[in-house]
Amino acid sequence: MSTSSPAIEVEQLVREFRKGPRAVDHIDLSVSPGEIYGFLGPNGAGKSTTVLMLTTLLPPTSGRATVGGYDVVKQGAQVRASIGAALQEAALDPILTGREHVNLQATLQGLAKADRKRRADELLERVGLTEAADRRVGGYSGGMKRRLDLALALVHRPRLLFLDEPTTGLDPQSRSAVWDEVARLAHDEGITVFLTTQYLEEADVLADRVGIIDLGRIVAEGTPAQLKAQIGSPSVEVTPVEQDAGERLAELLARFGELRQNGRGSVTVQLPGGESELAEVVRVLDQAGLRVELLQLHQPSLDDVFLAKTGRKLEGAGEEVEEEPAGRGRRLRRRGR
Amino acid sequence: MVADVSLFQQVSAVAHRSVTRTLRQRGLLVFPVLFPLILFAINGSALSAATHIHGFPVSNYRDFALALPFIQGALFVSISAGTDLARDVETGFFNRLALTPLRGSALLVGQLGGAFVVASIQSIVYLLVGIATGVGIRAGVGGAVVLLALSTLISFGFACLGCLIALRFGSGEAVQGIFPLLFVLVFLSSSSLPRNLIKTDWFREVATYNPVSYLIEGVRSLIITGWDGEALALGFGFAAALAVIALALAERAMRTRLVRT
């Protein structure tokens, strides 16, 4: 792979499951070497299925993908040799210690015996598990398991790293530790990172570029700033004291821009003129004598991008979809929408 | 620094993990050893009247009953080997291994390493307990060694069966689900009486066609008869057939499960 060619290139990739919908539906994407690409979407959007295809664990139904310059279908062994992966849920053996995990991984990846111990020490120290290295993983916290998972993915010094929801279920401190390490790997060591997440903040903070996937299709792609700029203006959310004042509130705010009624009387309105219109909003509400419980200015977020592109908020969007990774196979089932 | 990994290195690494797991989970060692010995103690006492049946081959029922723990132990080995593999599939550890250059055959054979350790330990314990309770091995010390080899081969065959179910269904529940079926097979064999003394026709027919009868009779022949070429040939033959067929099918199931591009 030359430095100018993409680290990951995907063209019209499709994955269909028997008796199921298309989990991944003709997606195209390109990731540059050293870039952190955030693949953002709700549960069941097709993120993990994409990762399984790109890591050679699931054959695509159609389309083409290259990882590290190798075709994921025709050159699976070369792809696996050039990538590290921490897949959804840290897949660790609770009976083994952290060090035994690294040793097993190092042996199977073909590291010379003399190099194994040094590499294990180095990686365990890097992820802050030196003291816990000889304890069984069953006693590790969620954050420690995720950090060990990351260390295992790095054993053979891959140039590309796939992280499938690496911080799901972690407390804020552990999440932050994983973010720091991922950022360091990309920015200091030039490792390309393909990261799936359902957390907006994670994509916003970590990713150089973000692809938003919903129902198997990429609905938006760009840097977080570019995506937010597509939404353009900030919005203000107003919640009246009396819930039945929602209709009147909507009438008053309609003059400013596009409205969205959030339920319980709360209304969100776009401010095409920017934050300076906030004072006018307050003035209008005051003149109308409408008592306000909450008034909140929102800068455009990736959630707004998701909402604009799909008509739904990211939070809870996946609840209508059940995705079941069943061991090496996957079944996908959707409830009527 | 990164080199090709030989098949031997792959098998060794997976087997090391399997053995380590097994030795650290004492429950996996204690219960498979204890349960058949409890049944041995109960049967040895409760069924001792069977020795009064005309033509019964021994005067002490314990001599006759000692073969059964070896088979029951093999069933436990099949469950623990299969459950371990199924858990790897369920937890995603299998995917982790699949992302390395590990070959499917190495994973399967290595995984059976833990089963081999359990099988060896429990066979030695059954033999020592039998001897300690007065059971004599008619085939002598050499026979005891052959007995251990046969029982380990039987355990290996059943462990392959457990792995086959694990790979085929990817679920620990499916592996445990075959346990009652295997137990029925054991009880529909010549485990409690010699086939020629079973009076009920259908039971005798079933026991005659049941391969488990020949596994038990092979082990038993070394304890109560001495060197019985036919019983040993049938015992080793059926055990080897079970191992070869189950291993071949498990290897095929592994290829399907380990689908990588």
Give structural notes.
The complex is a heterodimer of chains A (337) and B (261). Chain A has 337 residues and is of the alpha/beta class. Chain A folds into two domains: 8-92 and 140-229, P-loop containing nucleotide triphosphate hydrolases (Rossmann fold, 3-Layer(aba) Sandwich), CATH 3.40.50; 233-299, Alpha-Beta Plaits (2-Layer Sandwich), CATH 3.30.70.860. In chain A, 33% of the residues lie in helices and 28% in strands. Chain A contains eleven helices and 16 strands. Chain A has a six-stranded mixed beta sheet, sandwiched between helices. In chain A, strand 12 and strand 13 (266-270) form a beta hairpin. In chain A, helix 8 (224-231) crosses helix 11 (302-310). Mean pLDDT of chain A is 86; it is low at 320-337. Chain B is built from eleven helices and no strands. Chain B has helices at 7-24, 26-46, 61-65, 67-91, 93-98, 104-132, 140-169, 172-187, 201-209, 211-224, 229-257. Helices cover 77% and strands 0% of the residues of chain B. Chain B has one domain (7-257). The relative contact order of chain B is 0.15. In chain B, helix 4 packs across helix 10 (211-224). With 261 residues, chain B is mainly alpha-helical. The chains are: A alpha/beta (337), B mainly alpha (261). Chain A binds chain B through residues 55-59, 72-74, 76-77, 79-81, 83, 85, 87-89, 91-93, 95-96, 100, 104-105, 107-112, 115, 136, 152, 156-157, 325-329, and chain B through 1-5, 9-10, 13, 16-17, 20-21, 24-25, 88-102, 170, 257-261.
